[in-house]
Amino acid sequence: MPIPLTYSFTRYLSAKKSVDDRALNQHVWQSLAAALPRATLDQPLQILEVGAGLGTMVERLFAGAMLTNATYTAIDLEPTLIAEARRRLSQWATAQGLQVQQDSQEQLHMQRPGQDIRVEAEAIDLWRFVAREQGQRTWDLLIAQALLDLVDVPTTLPALLSLLRPGGLFYCPITFDGGTVFQPEIAPEFDAAIEACYHQTMDQRLVAGKPSGDSRTGRHLFTHLQTAGAEVLAAGSSDWVVFAGPNGYAADEAYFLHFIIHTMHTALAGHPDLDAERFTAWIAQRHAQVEQGTLVYIAHQLDLLGRVPAPLGETRE
Ligand SMILES: C[S@@+](CC[C@H](N)C(=O)[O-])C[C@H]1O[C@@H](n2cnc3c(N)ncnc32)[C@H](O)[C@@H]1O
DSSP string spanning 242-264? Predict the structure, then answer.
């Protein structure tokens, strides 16, 4: 595909789905399926997804037979993404043979015999959501996919875990962990300098004046979770590996690659440690490699599944 003239985060998240589908760690995924409590119509599984984007995890859990009776709360900061999630999920559910009803502006109700799923999608900052719901409501499962590397984990994690019922589960897939690889190499030392500077932008990111990022969030999660009093049940890598096969890049993954290169360009433009002219040429060459189908991109990430403590004898089967 030619280099895009404009970039859309919505299209990027949509293009990311096939990359994530390949990347998700199957051991962690199967451990999640095994750990989920049984759900009934009277006692549906309560799932909260934070930073849900387009709601693609709903589609994935459904395909993995993990959504039979469930209330799925999907929140994201961005109203445009939540609006698109509602539109997309409604269309997707109809295509799955589910009956879809819009119960309210925020709630989609999807049904077929033996299956009853309510998706509540809301555009709200996670901190406002935590402040509103803490002590009011709890969930059986918290999902945060490709989110924790964008926030201050030491403060955000305990706040999010406080929304779980005792013994509740959390699933944090596609958590960035310090590897951004492009092949073929252009100039090994310059490639490495760009990777280091890019990771540094994550480590130094501030949102509203607060630290919001860590380029090694995946590995650091083990300690953060221990500090928060939670246990890890399963963990494994979920690296993105994007390459062109005999028919080119899969699905919309050429767009995905252009978006990643554009993101790096934006993050590093004017960086004092990178020669500006050389960096601009490097970015142009990476875009050209996508057009030619020669670029291979690998990002190292981890998936973690865990549980918050339950008082002895108190578990939901
Ligand atoms: C990298 S995207 C991942 C989206 C989705 N989980 C996925 O994997 O396709 C991160 C998402 O987190 C959302 N996000 C970031 N900070 C947030 C916050 N403070 N509260 C709620 N959502 C947030 C962003 O708007 C974005 O949609």
Answer: E--BTTBSSTTHHHHHHHHHHHH
Residue 237 dihedral angles phi and psi, to the nearest 5°: -85, 155
Atom of ligand 1 nearest to the CA of 126: 20
**Element holding 88 (H helix, E strand):** helix 79-95
Neighbours of 234 (CB within 10 A): 18
Helix (H, G, I), strand (E, B) or coil at 65: coil
Picking from 230, 72, 229, 53, the residue whose alpha carbon sits closest to that of residue 140 is 72
Atom 12 (ligand 1): residue with closest C-alpha? 51
Tokens of 305: 């599944």
Predicted confidence (pLDDT) per residue in 153-177, tens digit: 999 999 999 999 999 999 999 999 9
Dihedral angle computed from the Cα positions of residues 119, 60, 131 and 78, in that order, rounded to the nearest 10 degrees: -80
DSSP 82: H
More confident residue, 3 or 233: 233
* Phi, psi torsion values for 19, nearest 5 degrees: -70, -45
pLDDT one-digit tens code per residue, 115-131: 999 999 999 999 999 99
Pocket test for ligand 1, best of 75, 76, 129 (most atoms within 8 A of CB): 76
CA 120 to chain centre: 18
Q: Does the pTM of the predicted model rise above 0.90?
A: yes
